[in-house]
Amino acid sequence: MDSVLKDLEGIFSGFPIEAILRAIVVVLIAVVIQFLGSRSIRRFAKAFAKRKPTARTSQLRGASDDEMAHTLMDDRQEQRAHALGSLAHSALVLFVWGVAVITILSIFGINVAPLLASAAVVTAVIGFGAQQFIADYLAGIAMIFEDQLGIGDTVNLGGTVLGEVEETALRYTRVRDYWGTVWYVRNGTISFVQNMSQGWYYSLVEIPVPYDADLEKVQQVINDAGKDMEQDPDCNSMLLGAPYFSGLEGVTATSAIVRINTKIVPDGNQWYVSRVIRQRMKGALDDAGIHIPLDGIQVRTAPVAAEVQQKPGQPTPPGATAPAARHGDQKPPEQPAP
To answer: Most buried one in 12, 125, 195, 212, CB count within 10 A?
Structure first.
């Protein structure tokens, strides 16, 4: 038994048991700090989002464009809270594990100062070669702090993807388009952000009416239907005003195209509101006897004189029409000589 213990003591004598245990403790502390910090960030983001000022649609009707945009932009605390929470979580992970690695190296007797100096040189070299990678992080920080987008926003990123933001990270932005596909767009490649969820949004609907329709009557029908939609409980929560006749947008050979405008709350229902407006306006125009014209082709016919039987080579009598050539009666054209 004593020999076995001596052998085990000889095997483990070369291992720095104390240093390993201290390193394990450092790793456990880093895990705990990351867990508690992430949990605190999530709770702070939720609490900050719950304190957002909620503006009802009825309070915004009749307000000017500047007042409406300012009020609705202040109502974006939830999106900003989630975006900043994601940024804070990424920063926490980098800081905690960076300190943990440096501490573990010090425990094992490695001089950290030369290593940090060498790491600075290596970082400069890597940074020169990974400029795009660094640009992604800098662009992500700028987009989050400037509130260019937030989780739940409907955005068009650089003309690449149109959809709803699901995650805002430092290096990329995750967007789910309206076909259900998930896109990971690097922040450094986003040349512009078209955000359709900030402030108010215009719903523009164009409907064709008959060319000879009375536009004053069309305007009256559309405005009355818009006022009915504003009073409808199913629609007034989405509308910032009654849909109204904007004017004549275009003219074709068979129809006159009129435009219907209205301001809506951009909470992801932009296209749904436009569909509802089209449906309601079509019903109102049908009830008023103004039907959407059908595109067609006008065909004109003229009387043709009776064909006259004649022999080959006989001239055609006056007032008669020569018989139409039938398929196969004509000779093929002569081919040019080579």
So the answer is: 195
